[in-house]
Specification:
With 67 residues, the protein is of the alpha+beta class. It has one domain: Molybdopterin biosynthesis moea protein, domain 2 (Alpha-Beta Complex). It has a three-stranded antiparallel sheet with strand order 3-5-4. The protein has helices at residues 16-23, 27-35, 53-66; strands spanning 2-5, 8-11, 13-15, 42-45, 48-52. It is 46% helix and 30% strand.
Length: 67
């Protein structure tokens, strides 16, 4: 799924490969985070895991501000 932002298409859902590239962490850690019951940005569609990019960015900002 994509949205138009300023004339440019941006993905709303990121798959595991895209999350891996976006965050710079390994697939095992990503799967661990996505499967966590308190993960608010993950969703499973069929057998595949995705992250809502907007919620992922919000989660990252929370983690950064905790430090």
């Amino acid at each position: 799924m994509s949205v138009v932002n300023g004339g440019c298409m941006q993905k709303v859902l990121l798959n595991i490969s895209e999350i891996k590239e976006y965050l710079g962490i390994g697939e095992t850690k990503i799967r661990e985070i996505l499967k966590s019951p308190n993960c608010k940005f993950s969703m499973k569609i069929g057998n595949r895991w995705y992250a809502d990019k907007r919620l992922l960015d919000s989660w990252l900002n929370e983690k950064i501000s905790e430090k």
